[in-house]
Amino acid sequence: MNRALTLTIAASALWALAAVWVYDCKIKRVCGPGNETATIAPLAEPPVARPAARRPDAPAAAVAATPLVSGVVLRVSFDARSAALLPPADAEAGLETLRQGIAQGQKVRVLGHSDGRGARTRIVIVSQQRAEALRDWLLVQGIPASAIATVESREDREPIASNNDDEGRRKNRRAEALLTAKE
User: Fold this and answer.
1) Which residues contact 126 (CB under 8 A, 6 or more apart)?
2) pLDDT at position 45, please?
3) I want to staple 171 with a disulfide (CB 3.0 to 4.6 A). Which of 120, 133, 161, 179 is the partner?
């Protein structure tokens, strides 16, 4: 009976610690050392421009003058095991593209990614925290919350480089802001 009581107390204590961690890290977002830095990597490729769908009553010239963009507009890189984001210095072009897309009725998707190293639970958590960090930064930069359609953890499922070397893993530790196709 004494052993069962000890196990129950230990399980209760672990549950309480987990609950505190979820509250601090997921809700208040005040966990972790917070001393790591993140950088904004300029996109290697320009965003893909797509012509807008023509409304039957719209003149053809007006449609051609307002191309829509879909795809990755802003990419943020992170240090290993970090979701700390410092204000980037070179993201103004991406922000302007986001603002133009939002003005045309497009929505923003924010995706967090990991390099696939470490425990599966940690990969899920850190990629979600990266997406949330980019979302929060976008809100501070004046992107309206109503324009952000989703904030998703993509974990390590969509690498853009090989995870077999440090350089590839560095590229895969990222969060991205994408403009979705206009509905």
Assistant:
1) 81, 82, 83, 112, 114
2) 43
3) 161
